[in-house]
Amino acid sequence: MAEKICVSVRVRPQVSQDSSSGTFWRVEDNRISLHKLHGTPIPAISYAFDYVFDETCSNAKVYELLTKDVIHAAVDGFNGTAFAYGQTSSGKTFTMNGSANDPGIIHRAVNDIFQKIQMISDREFLIRVSYMEIYNEEINDLFAVENQKLQIHESLERGIFVAGLREEIVNNAEQVMKLLESGEVNRHFGETNMNARSSRSHTIFRMVIESKGICMHSSGDYSSSDAIRVSVLNLVDLAGSERIAKTGAGGVRLKEGKYINKSLMVLGNVINKLSNGAKQRAHIPYRDSKLTRILQNALGGNAKTSIICTLAPEEVHVEETKGTLLFASRAKRITNCAQVNEILTDAALLKRQQLEIEELRMKLQGSRSEVLEQEILKLRNDMLKYELEREKLEMELEEERRSHKEREQRIRDQQRKIENLSSLVSDGDRSSSQDSMKESPTDECNDRGDSFKTPCFKGAGNVFVAMRSTNSELPDFSPLPDSFSNVADEVTWFKMNKGYIADLDSVQTTPARKVQSFPPQDITPDCSNDNYKEELQNLKRQLELVIKERNEFERKHEEEVQLNDRLMGEISELKQELDVSNNSLEASKERYGSLERELQLLKEERDSLLKSVAESSQKLTVLADQKENILKDLNWEVERRKDLEAEIKQFNVAFASRQRSLATIHGEFKSKMEKLRAENLVPLHKSLQY
Ligand code: ADP
Ligand code: MG
Hints:
The chain is α+β, with helices and mostly antiparallel strands. The protein has 16 helices and 19 strands. The strands form five sheets. Strands 2, 6, 7, 8, 9, 12, 13, 14, 15 and 17 form a ten-stranded mixed sheet that branches. Strands 3-4-5 form a three-stranded antiparallel sheet, with helices on one face. Strand 8 and strand 9 (about 140) form a beta hairpin. The longest helix has about 150 residues, at about 530-680. The termini are far apart. The chain binds adenosine-5'-diphosphate (ADP) and magnesium ion (MG). This is Kinesin-like protein. It comes from Hibiscus sabdariffa (roselle). Keywords: ATP-binding, Coiled coil, Microtubule, Motor protein, Nucleotide-binding.
């Protein structure tokens, strides 16, 4: 869907109180206008943008209103770019990097991205970052000082990319911050005047966010769908724009044309062309500078883009400020067409790297998982490094092959030339011997005429043959005409660099052979003997020249052959390097394999442990059941005993009372017997006898 680039303006606080009685900038809502000191607005210098932030505005607010949407969209698979444009000391770096109290856009974006992906449970993410600087039209890697003068390439799979640029896979915001700090250190390395450099160089912090959906099956397993989203987020701190602004709206002439920042000028051109509407879109000069080439998608392409133009409010800067506002208002007219980038090919790193790592990582829990996670991250980074290294080597090899082919072609050409010359020389020999024998000079003249028809002899005299080398590059800086306006248009630029002005550095000059042709008037059918001799002399001289030239060519050929051999040697060295790199990749893969095996063993161990634990717990359950039953029995027995005891007690009591009553009865019986005995002693005896 086509949408306009989001453009805002930010005015930094005044550094010094201006005592001049001139003008000042007034910010009202989303409008900024130039006013005379007593308050009347100056007509025509009033601009409206998506947002205009005054000097009280914090980075937090700028991020919230201007950049947050772009960052969130990047997590969802849209390319995104945010850049700061403005003159030196207007607050670009403050906006992008911020301060300790008020972190800038980069810091906030990184935190925000990691927070956001943490909340997305149905996708897994792989994030890698890179950090580069464009200085004097050279791309340097800020993560690896040895990576200098990198080249931009384009491929179907990866789009436009910087070959050999180091990328680091990252897991959390702290890692990114550490990397950025190390990048800053690299930037300062060996640089005596850092401020001068930073005002002339652009830095691009780039995050590549890959993600794919994961779904949980009812079995509890994870699986992932095939489409992978890949989005690129560029956060750019541009060089100071004052130099081109000076040439511009105010009409102030450019003084320091020699050191003009080509990237910024081309950026101006690109914005200019894009703002002119769809008609001219076919001729956007993205390729004229490294910056615009890298940001091609962000400018009128497949990306969501927000631009923040920073202004210095002091009156001395009014012309630069006007230039910046003009740039901003042109940018406002650009439409982009952003879409989610989903790919199914192997181009996505996420896909290329073994998916199992991620799955294992998710499945793994417990104390060892952290260590393994670190190990896996390291492994992934190693793999990425090897891949990038291999890619770079392949490209170098390709380059070597091409130049080798070109050299071979040149050698073949020269050989052909030498052959031509040899045949020429032998022709010359033949004709001179014929000359001495022939009677008819007319025939001789005709023959000679034919012999010298080869094109290389045509440009005789003091002419030099100039040849533009095929791989000549545009010069870094070009002299500018006096009338150069704010942002030079492409035609002027083209004229300056590709058209009229010869690229003297890359021009090779070879002196043309000094060959004297025979003056035709000398060759007449009735030429004298003297003439004839003179001609013979001429011919001999010419022959000598040609032989000399042939020797020269042979020598050159010898040199070329030597060069060729050296190149072949270099190529085989490169191949060896490639082999070494492949070997280490292999070793890393092996390490990964052994790690995986270790993991497998651990898993098996854990499983068997779990199994025995399960068995034990089963036994424990049975035992517990038994114990419970026994306890129950015991309780019952105890109850029964208690009952029995109670019964025994009762019985005892009853027994005692019976005993007592028996004793009483016995006593009574005894006394009765006594009594009876006393009363009837004899009868008793008698009765007893009975
Ligand atoms: P640039 O990168 O455009 O050259 P800087 O970001 O380095 O400019 O800003 C120049 C100075 O102004 C720095 O000291 C910075 O801290 C200060 N500054 C810039 N913008 C602001 C702002 N919005 N609030 C407070 N200080 C700022
Ligand atoms: Mg700066």
